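Record format v2
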Amino acid sequence: MSEEIVLNIENLHVYYGAIHAIKGISVKVPKGKIITLIGANGAGKTTTLSTIAGLVKAKSGKITYNGVDITNKPAHTINRMGIALVPEGRRIFPELTVYENLMMGAFNRKDKEGIKQDLEWVFELFPRLKERLSQLGGTLSGGEQQMLAISRALMSRPKLLMMDEPSLGLAPILVEEVFEVIKKINEEGTTILLVEQNAFGALKISHYGYVLETGSIVLEGPSEELLANEMVKKAYLGMG
Amino acid sequence: MVEKRLKTSTKVWLTIIFIIFMGFLLWIADRTFDDYKLRVLRLIAIYGIMAVSLNLINGITGVFSLGHAGFILIGAYTASLLTLTPEQKAMSFLFGIQPWIEKLHTDFFTATIAGGAMAAFFAFLIGWPVLKLYGDYLAIASLGFAEVVRIWANNAMTITNGPLGLKAIPEYSNTWWVYGWLLFTVAFISSLVYSSYGRALKAIREDEIAARAMGINVFKHQLLAFVVGAFFAGVSGSLYAHWLTTIDPRLTTMGPMLTFYILIMIVLGGLGSITGSLIGAAIFAILFEWLRNLEQPFTFFGIHVPGIPGMRILVVSVIFILVMIFWQRGIMGREELTWENLYRWFSKLKREGEKS
């Protein structure tokens, strides 16, 4: 099987002071797929994404994006290369309007026409945002804020979209909606690296999964296999 | 609900008419006010420039700098040394002066630009280390910078004349200069704030990590805001010096006290609001002058109070504490007094009037 690897993480180590948060993980993200990292709190999922995005420095190891080494590059350089992050806890700009929030996502773009098109695309995905365009970001509900965070990342027209717990703190009906949208974004051609505590939902829409435990990968495989795996069932799916 | 919006051309015309109208009012004031009132009127504009420029750094970018007085001092000294004639300098520098400084002489406008440029240059230099810090540490480091500048000015006898200060600075800061510069400052900073650059500055203030994840070079943007803010602080320093006509590196005139006064103006007006800063500056200037009455002996409900020097600072501090407790967002909050907002406000009033 020869698929094109968009993002390749090799033997990555990350420390927070003396704490060894990521202990040598290797992850491959093939083009056009949804790859998921699942695991409990403190497993190192967010740290992994932050390191890829350039928000946290790696101690050792290598991250390559389309063959280019991006390890420890500044965040704005990485963003310009086509990697966007939907940060954990949404982190929208509360005192900017919805429109301004979206335009911040397109900050490094100059193509006015393209931005307009993507704005339409985002409204198609989340019609509710269009109604709230001139409202301040902080006045949106939790679900709407999550939609805004995803849309904001999409406005940079990323080739690789990284999402950190997009289902966190959402009502069950919205969780399903968000997962549906993730699938749709992927089907329209964006590669996705998804971090989730909601292992069931993530594995259902993804192609391949990695299970993280205290900074190491304990298990990996195609998502259907992981869904059927006894250990995963017991530890993450609450079955067994 | 469909909001009625004003056309851009309408807003431009309203702004032009407003500026002409204000210019007319200033013209009348300039002719009819007595000297004292005119000085306060000019001080309002100088404070306005100081407040708007600090607001760009503290309120809009969210970099909590306490170094503004340092930049004002740099601007004031640079400009004053340029407008004083060689003869005046030779006279007032009792301990000698660097010959190259003695010879330099320019007109007021060039001197003011030079003051701003010098302040901006220093902001660029200290911005590199200082902006790597966060929150309280940045505030302390920038305060430290301002103090270093002040103490340097106190000791560099052959450049600044030390504690003797500069005297007989020509009183060039007339109504037209100070309000002209105020207009330019507000126009420049608001066009910066409403550009995509300004949006990025606000995004950094709101959530720095998210801003970085959006691909914003946080350091570059903060440095830009810092340097632009310092430039206008330097300009205000020049205007201030040519309003005071005597400057020396004391704690109160261009030391930390001045920074805190400006801070009071922008917090009172609303951190992050340009029009708020202007309102804050005007209120502060007038209130602070009016409170001079407290320092004279007066009778209050039949009780005789002797004049206590420094009383007004105490009262202003109490007012500031009360504002902080009951009105944390200040007069304007982060809103701006725009034509759009005024229009909305009036149509709301009208609608409510029709209902009742």
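Chain A touches chain B through 27 residues (CB under 8 Å).
Chain A is about 40% helix and 25% strand.
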